[in-house]
Amino acid sequence: MQNIHPPFRGALWESNHPCMPVIKSRPTFTTLPFYNFLLWVLLGVLTFPCCVRCLIFKVGVLGPWNCDPVQNRALPAAAARLAVNRINGDLNLDLGLKLDFIILQEPCETSTALTAFIYNENKADVFIGPTNPGYCVAASLLSKNWDKAIFSYGCVNYELDWVMGYPTFSRTVPFPSEVLFIVLKYFRWASVVVISSNEDIWRDTAARVATALRREGLPVGLVTSIGMNETEMESTLRKIQEAGEIRVIIMCMHSVLIGGEQQATFLLKAQEMGLTSGKYVFMPYDTLHYSLPYTNVSFSPPAKQQQAEGSL
Questions:
Q1: pTM above 0.90?
Q2: CATH classification number, 6-171, choose in 3.40.50.2300, 3.40.50.970, 1.20.1250.20, 3.40.50.720
Q3: Which residue spans adopt a coiled-coil conformation according to this UniProt entry (predicted)?
């Protein structure tokens, strides 16, 4: 067996499909910006000799690009093109094939996202995604039947770690609930609630995160959405106050740190109700999956909003 680059050691690829590797273990990578994340995944695909017989190896980049404005700002086509061009132009990776990509649209509703995924069988040789944990198990079973690998950063379903049942599934980041558990254990924060915005993808994420934390032995006092308007949002915050000795509020929605408007509104309402004074810790869940900008840029939000965001 050929030498494998260190970041990809621990992965054994087997497949009867001429272009398709199957993962036998669970490699994880450090959190990277979307372009670098794609680059490392695509480099991993090229590392293995079973792909040499293919002239073109196509990677499907799956996500809710059309229906989610924040996801769309990731510029998946531009990121994939940069990664593919860099790999194809690297003479050290000349394996007699060309890497290509296709952007696959993932509907925002879980049921329609699964239906759409069924039609992706012949569109790509490997998939990066899905982002919606609501159909990760079903998608992984389909990929097992197709003998095609799935690299996912959004699937938080603990059952996917069963290698015999889901041999074509691999995580690209550490299991998010384990990261949360380590942080909560370090600060001795035992009681949490998990809230989400109203989209299917975030409702399903909140449910899976709560299940994973309960498996670690943490009491999750409440799992709910923030509501559709200020009245429902206030009602959700009242439920949190009435849920007992809650210390941490895990927010499954687009972070205000990258422009998430619903989280900004939620934090402002929490501030109005006096919940941002230090009693509760507000943790944005989505920031576990990517690197936040760290350049020296000054922002001048309104004082009220700045105080609310300071509770993160």
A1: no
A2: 3.40.50.2300
A3: none
